[in-house]
Amino acid sequence: MAFGPKGCSLKHQIEVYHNLAQGKAVIDYSFHGVIQHVNKDILNELEEIINYGIPSFKFYLTYGYKVENDEALAVLKKLKELGGITTVHCENHEIINYLREDYLAKGLVAPIYHSKSRPEEAEGEAVNRMINVAAVAENAPLYIVHLSTALGLQYIKSAKERGQDNIFAETCPQYLVLDEEQYKLPNNGGLKFIMSPPLREKNNKEALWKGIKDGDIQVIATDHCPFNFNKEKQLGKDDFTKCPNGAPGVETRIGIIFSEGVSKKRISLNKFVEITSTNPAKLFGLYPKKGTIAVGSDGDLVIFDPYKKVTITKDMLHENVDYTPYEGIKLVGYPEIIMARGEIIARNNEFIGQKGYGKFIKRNKIELI
Ligand SMILES: [Zn+2]
């Protein structure tokens, strides 16, 4: 997510991110453009960025850089025209602001009020709003990131029933295996789970699994955004609104989804490959270089032991952060060998790849699925 300082051009942001990755990445990578404000210059820049190899952009309906409905409409229309895809963080800004202030005024500052101040309806409303804006934008492709609620999913389903295709949704492991109870852990343990959207009530989890099975959710990603529990997260110890939002999850995604999805028979092995690899490769313009095993495609392979038993702990992981939200979770099935472009980069949980091996991938225009 190529964020930049307020008011900067998309090109500037991407240059900065190139510098951050240069010589360091161990696997291939790309960037999503982040649209933090909308004006003529930004809209005119989109074509050049897409032609350069970045066809996906994210904007937010909340936070200080939130995009308004008319701006969203302009971006959706333009990206459709250019063969790009609009991805949106869907939460209703005003509902959240009102509730945050209300809880703060009442002295309700514990981590659980993070989720209470970002209710399911705040996501549902924003999802439904964007679906309608995308319909007005001549059925522009819309990709809803980190969907966390059954309510949002219902709006997606009902739009599809009305015949609006080109709506795609992503969820993440945290919304499939964790829930709101985590915010009540002792010693402010709930701060570890402060992310947006927040963890939800239990009943949402099976609804999201069903959405995956039925094909209404096409991708499981991570929203990986770590902060140390003993450092940055402690900013929220007396006030949840001061806690940085985000949690780690990039290393645990594949193992958790295999175990909770395939081993527990919620989804088929084919569906697992589709939602973790093939679908995102197609939607984000990487297919068939990535996302398939075929002559001419990159040899990016994960070889699993489907019966291996693993208990997730912070110590077994390589993420650069002092905790994992999945501590103690027991998995059946875990990756044994990981290959990037034909080279083995990890074996039996040991990283043996090389810094700088990863290349920036120029992506194509998107392929609707
Ligand atoms: Zn987001």
UniProtKB/TrEMBL annotation:
Cofactor: Zn(2+)
Enzyme Commission designation: 3.5.2.2
Residue intervals of the Amidohydrolase-related domain: 66-324
Record bears the keyword Repeat: no
Keywords in alphabetical order: Hydrolase, Metal-binding
Descriptive protein name: Dihydropyrimidinase
Protein family (similarity comment): Belongs to the metallo-dependent hydrolases superfamily. Hydantoinase/dihydropyrimidinase family.
Top EC category: hydrolase
Classification via Pfam families: Amidohydro_1
Matches recorded under InterPro entries: Amidohydro-rel, Hydantoinase/dihydroPyrase, Metal-dep_hydrolase_composite, Metal_Hydrolase, Metallo-dep_Hydrolases_sf
GO terms, molecular function: dihydropyrimidinase activity
